[in-house]
Amino acid sequence: MRDKRDKQRLYRAEGIKLLYSNALPGILITFIVATSLVFTFLGHENRAGKLIWWATICLLLAVRLVDTLLWYRANSFERKQNHFYWRFSTGCLLTALLWSGWCLFFSGGFSSEEFTSSMVILSAMAGGATSILSGNALIGTLYPIIVLVPFSLELLCASEKYKNNLGALGLCFTAIMVFSAGRAARYVKSAILLKYKNSQLLERMEETIRTRTQEIYEISHTDSLTGLHNRVAFLRAANALTLRYKQNEISGFSLFFIDLDGFKAINDTLGHDAGDQILLAFSDRLKTFNRDNNAMLCRWGGDEFIFCIPLTDRAQLARLAQEMNESFSQPWALRGQELFLSATIGIAICPRHSEAITRLIQLADIAMYSLKGKQPQRVAFYNRELETELLNQVYLQEALKSALAKNEMRLVYQPIVEAQSGRIVSLETLLRWQCGDDAIPPSLFIPVAEKSGSIVPLGYWIIEEACKTLAELPPAAKEIALSVNVSIVQLQDAAFIDKVEQLLTHYAIAPERLHLEVTESLFHESQTEIYAKVSYLQDKGVRISIDDFGTGYSSLSVIQNMRIDFVKIDRSFVNNIDDKGLAVVQAVLTMSGTFGYEVIAEGVETARQAQTLLNFGVPLLQGYYFSQPLEKAAMLARVVEATCATRL
Fold it and tell me: How many CB atoms lie within 10 A of CB 550?
């Protein structure tokens, strides 16, 4: 596309040059022919009009002559400007209009000789224009049309046969001239382009070679979209910077690993062209922080960038990173709308963290990755704890892939009891992972499973195990339900509803005996999709619990918009029941009467807490005071014992 535009500009510039080069002969011929025609047939009829016409065309030719002289006096750059093209075009086409006007205005008094002479002269003028105006196809085509067509049409409409013949000849000649003008223009255009190519090859061979060499270097060393260093060029330049440090030329340097948050969503929703525009704008903002031209900037890949600067003071680096984030958080204009994005920055310092550039990149990447999903933090300096944490996450992520196959996962069950009677009404399933000799707590592996997607097959296994357990309960305990924790990743899986229905059918479990526990924040992220799935399951009989109620930011809206069956008061409020926690308990109990849900207090660890909750009317309790999580066999024995005691 760029080459095409360059050729068009070249053709326009050379065309202007050709038009003005032929202008003087054309102006002279036009003056001679116009003067001869007027004074040859200057009779008494239309004498004044013909003289006015002659004076007008002479004035126009004088103006065109001055314009041509101005073009000759202009420098090479000015000669290529578009205003010369428009001035020449205007003067040339006005001349054509005057020739056309000669016949239209005065033909009423023409003799047969004057008709014939006028037609011959106009045809000659049109024919000559095809070569003189060959520098521009449009002008070369319009000139004969304007000169001949109006007069030819007038002659065709006349009653005399010889006039009709002259009109037909005029139209035929016009068609031939238009065709000839097009061919001449194409030939001239090809000649111009060929001349340009030859001159470039002959006169600028050495410069062309240097340009191509530079282009090859840039292609291999710069990012094609942003113009920043690519990986190869950055590593080479950074190694040179490391050498300067080792030679004590600088005290050290720091490396920022920058990741653009939310970029994938732009690519997925608005397309890769929009994503490229954002990346280009992002790189422009990043360049503004190279204030002393001593930093190195690199597009490492995708939406990841590196900013390397010979600065090691932690406070200064923190300020610089904060300024970057403030800049990156400003609105991004895209297709007439504003987008709001941000960036996460990890920082590693030479020599404090490492002297090897590849290691520094790795460490800065680790620092950046440690902040993903931890708003509002956006800047992290590398430390060894971050690397240890990341390595542990990688280890857990890999181990999770085979945990089910190795039978390392199991469920334990914690009873939920009636506050008044102590009767077990349901059981919460809790996942445990014994990885070799290590018991991995859920607080560590559940976030890793959600992030890696392992939570989906793991979640289906949990629901199936819960259904198996429900099927194994004694007949006297058929009213007891099981609660299963469900994450947003599971609910977003397209097969979730079908899978739950299949398991309930396969194990012949009444849907109301399966309780799904979700956190209130889950509904904030994807309300429409989650609401639809939860509502469908509720319509089928499955009951829904809101876990950790009161710790999120959408509590009231969740209660108001969903037909929640149970609300579990978070253990933090139960532990703080003698202070502000009691107010939360009272508020939840008050709302339960309005919205029709049941209240469960979890984390009950003492008799005093249990009695206080009972006194305030909390109907269901859960916690270590009643039972620790039980292995399956112990749970079944406890249920059998409880049901036997109930019958007695």
Answer: 18
Helix and strand element counts for the chain (H, E) = 26, 16
Find the helix or strand (DSSP H, E) in which 325 lies: helix 314-328
pLDDT (0 to 100) of residue 316: 94
Residue 610: C-alpha distances to residues 173, 228, 413, 617 (Å)? 110, 64, 20, 11
Separation of alpha carbons 241 and 306, rounded Å? 14
403-647 maps to CATH 3.40.50.300: no
Give the residue from 625, 571, 609, 586 showing the smallest Cα distance to 417: 625
Looking at 573-639, which runs of residues are DSSP E strands?
598-601, 620-621
pLDDT of residue 1: 46
Domain residue spans in the chain? 2-203, 222-382, 403-647
Nearby residues of 145 by Cβ (< 8 Å), 6 or more positions away: 174, 178
Asked if 426 and 482 touch (Cβ cutoff 8 Å), the reply is yes
Given the candidates 3.50.50.60, 3.20.20.70, 3.30.70.270, 3.40.50.10860, the CATH classification of the domain at 222-382 is 3.30.70.270
**Three-state secondary structure call for residue 144:** helix
Give the confidence band of 362 by pLDDT, cuts at 50, 70, 90: very high
Separation CA 529–CA 461 (nearest Å): 23
What span, in angstroms and rounded, lies between the C-alpha atoms of 141 and 641?
Answer: 105
> Do 222-382 and 403-647 fold alike per CATH?
no
| pTM as predicted | 0.55
